Amino acid sequence: MSAAITIRDLTVAYHHRPVLWDINSTLPASQLIGIVGPNGAGKSTLIKAIMGLVPLASGEIRIVGEPLDRQRHLLGYVPQRGSVDWDFPTDAFDVVLMGRYGKLPLFRRVGQKDRRVAMECLDKLGMAAFAHRQISQLSGGQQQRVFLARALAQDAQIYLMDEPFAGVDAATEQAIIILLRELKAAGKTIVVVHHDLQTVPDYFEWVALLNLRLVAAGPMREVFRGEQLRATYGGRLNLLTAIGEEMVK
Predict the structure, then answer these.
(1) How far is Cα 131 from Cα 61, in angstroms, rounded to an integer?
(2) How far is it, in rounded angstroms, from Cα 19 to Cα 11?
(3) Long-range CB contacts (< 8 A, 24+ apart) of 105-112?
């Protein structure tokens, strides 16, 4: 498989305390990839490091073989919903339209094509009827759909999503996974921070197990197994029987 993201000797520290330590991994292109680990494992930090949103203590990240600064246009990002100021005075349509800004030449304003794409993305997520609703007036699931529509409007090659399934209703969760599978079928790479161990085998083809260090990474059937899960979660792992005995032998 070709490499979408290459991570070499990556260490990230907050206030001189490492939150990611000596990470080495190659995330393959055109795959649905889950980043899995306990709370505080550094999963969100890894996504932010790939995006260039946090400084690196050491190491490098390459996007399709090139430095991030040259390839940033290939990336689309969906942050954690809890990190967004939903009281900001804007509507759903304008949030999605922001996803088009990176496609515009310098000093060019958004045009009719950009507006059409934004509305099409809202419609794809079932949110066209809420286009001019203030984002503060949307439910949690609706807000998440708007941010996914914004990422879709970016027309990225690689999508990085931080807990997109967290706190959403069942209908929104199903809509999200359908969208992710469609993106993968179109040749996109999707990297998702995910917390629900029970749905990992159904949602992802490739998984990275993270707890400060990279415990294991590879095809889901090879990596998502008892020994590696125990090494990742330690004594906090109590869902193995729910996942299935065949995954822990």
Answers:
(1) 36
(2) 8
(3) none
